[in-house]
Amino acid sequence: MRLILLRHAKTEKAEGGMSDRARRLNARGKADAPVIGAYMARHSLIPELVLISTAERARQTWERVAATLPSPPRVAYEERLYNAGAEAIIALVKGTAPTVRTLLVVGHNPGLHEAARRLIASGDVETRERLNEGLPTSGLAVIDFAGKDWRKLHPRGGRLERFVSPRSLAEADRV
Fold first, then answer.
1. 40: which of 17, 65, 143, 149 is 20 to 30 A away, CA to CA?
2. How much is the pLDDT for 175?
3. What is the pLDDT of residue 81?
4. Do β-strands 2-7 and 74-78 pair in parallel, antiparallel, or remain unpaired?
């Protein structure tokens, strides 16, 4: 099984009574989301199901990512992902049908970052250390599990397959 965690792209600041839930992507976020989507397409990181927070910034992030993918996966907007902690995110993942082999969750910190940290037991040490420092906006963590049933997912059961962000991709291009 493969779990892909994607933090929403960079957003505008809440001003003039705007609710946090209504915040939209800023120019950088609008540019970064398709970069991550194109990366996902190039590396065959194509989900069968996408769970997306109902916050506007998560929706906008997904729309820009989806536009770069070869075919649209099934999508579920999940109210419980907004402000979800790690345990709530892991519980949602565990509720996924066993027929889904690759699941993408589009959400928010600190919950996504903490969920990733709780689920990962192995993977490249340097990559794990970078993820431990934080999950930036448009950050993408790919975690592989040996099992075939999401319900049996357990902490420290995953291997961090990769962790990228638009910034890390740009830095790699400069090398």
1. 149
2. 57
3. 97
4. unpaired
Helices 86-94 and 111-119, axial angle in degrees (round to 10): 60
Exposure of 71 by Cβ count < 10 A (0-12 exposed, 13-18 middle, 19+ buried)?
exposed
Mean pLDDT by 10 residues, the chain (175 residues): 98 85 95 98 98 98 97 96 97 97 98 98 94 97 96 94 95 73
Residue 67 is assigned to a structural domain of this protein: yes
Residue 17 placed within a domain:
no
- What range does the domain containing 125 cover? 2-12+22-174
Question: Quick one: CA dihedral 111, 84, 162, 121, positive or negative?
Answer: positive
Structural domain tally of the chain? 1
Strand partners, 144: 2, 159
Max intra-chain CA distance, the chain: 48
| CATH number, domain with residue 106 | 3.40.50.1240
Helices within 15-55 (DSSP H only)? 27-42
3-state secondary structure of 52: strand
> Side by side, which strands form the sheet with 158-164?
74-78, 49-53, 102-107, 2-7, 140-145, 158-164, 120-123
